Amino acid sequence: MERILVSACLLGSRVRFDGGAKTSGDELLAAWRAEGRLVPFCPEVEGGLPVPRPPAEIEGGAGGAAVLSGEARVLTPDGSDVTWAFLSGARQALAAATSSGARLAILKEGSPSCGSLRVHDGTFSGRAVPGRGVTAALLELNGVRVFGEDRIAEAAAHLDALVRERAGRRSR
Ligand code: SF4
Fold it and tell me: DSSP code of 108?
């Protein structure tokens, strides 16, 4: 079965920085969950950060690739450097995708870990800029396609393509 890595907060886990969840009411996600297709994962908690925790943003709104290459840090509002946890969480998310065979992920949009199209600009003012979070960037670099929770129809189309590809390989 094609598995899907999913931000744990979208599935109701209270793992966000503020101690809450961002539970998705999407019917497809619920159906995939009932099939046992989903692999829930929270990179920030697995990376070693507590719940609750201070918010964090990538400095300069630089995006996850810059954090992976050491060109940008992830900071809290008081300037604490939490880059280590974001890198550890990203590596563990990739390991979870690899070990479960997931080639697709549905992650919370806008997060400095999970964002796939946008992240905050590093000023803690609520402004978003185009870019990926640290985990989303590492997954994409390693061939795992990432979609935000507002792009589940696109994720479903990609899942169908992966399922057809796998079936084609089996019949060869
Ligand atoms: Fe949700 Fe990802 Fe933030 Fe964890 S790191 S709370 S999974 S958005």
Answer: -
What SS3 state is found at 69?
coil
pLDDT (average), residues 139-153: 98
Asked whether 43 lines ligand 1 (CB < 6 A), one says: yes
Pick from 69, 64, 79, 80: nearest CA to 129: 64
Distance from residue 20's CA to the centre of ligand 1 (Å): 10
Q: What's the Rg (C-alpha) of the chain?
A: 16
Count up the domains in the chain and report the number: 1
Query: What tens digit of pLDDT does each residue of 9-51 get?
Result: 999 999 999 999 999 999 999 999 999 999 999 999 999 999 9
Which atom of ligand 1 is nearest to 89's Cα? 5
* Mean predicted confidence (pLDDT) in 112-134: 97
Cβ(116) to ligand 1 under 6 A?
no
Locus of tokens 């999913």: 6
Domain residues for the domain of 67 are 4-171
* Tens-place pLDDT, residues 84-109: 999 999 999 999 999 999 999 999 99
- Judge if the beta carbon of residue 72 lies within 6 A of ligand 1: no
